[in-house]
Amino acid sequence: MGNLLKVLTCTDFEQGPNFFLDFENAQPTESERRVWEQVNVVLKDARGVSDDLQAYKGAGAEIREAIQNPMDESLQERAWGAVVPLVGKLKKFYEFSQRLEAALHSLLGALTCMPDSPTQHLEREQALAKQFAEILHFTLRFDELKMTNPAIQNDFSYYRRTLNRMRINNIPAEGENDVNNELANRMSLFYAEATPMLKTLSDATTKFVSDNKNLPIENTTDCLSTMASVCKVMLETPEYRSRFASEETASFCLRVMVGVIILYDYVHPVGAFAKSSKIDMKGCIKVLKEQPANSVEGLLNALRLVLFTDLSTTPDWLGIKAQPPPP
């Protein structure tokens, strides 16, 4: 247990190798420990961020009352008092996305460095592969929660409008020092994305490739395509799926599979949805559609959003259609 076991090596170049990875028990070796410990500090905080986002209720009632009664100073103060601590939480989420970006860079550096191939890295450095998967799992979960909570953007929009009005009237604003105008602009761009955390990781992966020009791009894309193949094989093969100690591991694999597909699509010159892609997209979508609909709709929507960004690559054989982001 705890090992990355090769269960199938295809001779077909397009299919690539497939593996069984014990996501539940992989432990770091001495050679992995330095990077693993750095990333582990970030991952320990990921659960708290996810829990805080899930519990985020917003200040919709207070904001509506303040807008409907613009001359009632007590209602304005009440709304502002409700929004300021919520914006503090939104700041925390945004700052965590930057920490996650740095962690991803460290993992990609370890899993793609020369002279070993990404396949060799994934076989030997199972604990780092597991951490990579945990980052993707968190990212998809965060974005699902954000997409179903309109209060986030409503709260932040109200905060910015009110803050600007206070500045014009030279009124001191509580919380302005914590979220200044420059930071507010960056946060606004972050939350304007339909999937902000995934966009952060996608941009970070693209930046990793551009910053490491001596590293073949295939090292990065092959790492991603191999991870997608790992998850697909484990999910579609009863023998391997039965090894999961918890059914939650299946949900974990589904999120990781979708996450690496999207990262691959951002980085690879022709994307994940071309027939020349090393990812078996038709097979991956088949696996998704075989799960209970309510458990994978968010993941299918994430793939539809990627298709929507480049309609020229939308193939009919995939079985899903491009979908614009929600308004």
UniProtKB/TrEMBL annotation:
Domain (CYRIA/CYRIB Rac1 binding) ranges: 18-304
Keyword terms: Lipoprotein, Membrane
Main location: membrane
Membrane topology: Lipid-anchor
GO BP terms: regulation of actin filament polymerization
Domain of life: Eukaryota
One Pfam family this sequence matches: CYRIA-B_Rac1-bd
Gene Ontology MF terms: small GTPase binding
Keyword Ion transport: no
Entry similarity comment: Belongs to the CYRI family.
Name of the protein: CYFIP related Rac1 interactor B
Provenance organism: Paramormyrops kingsleyae
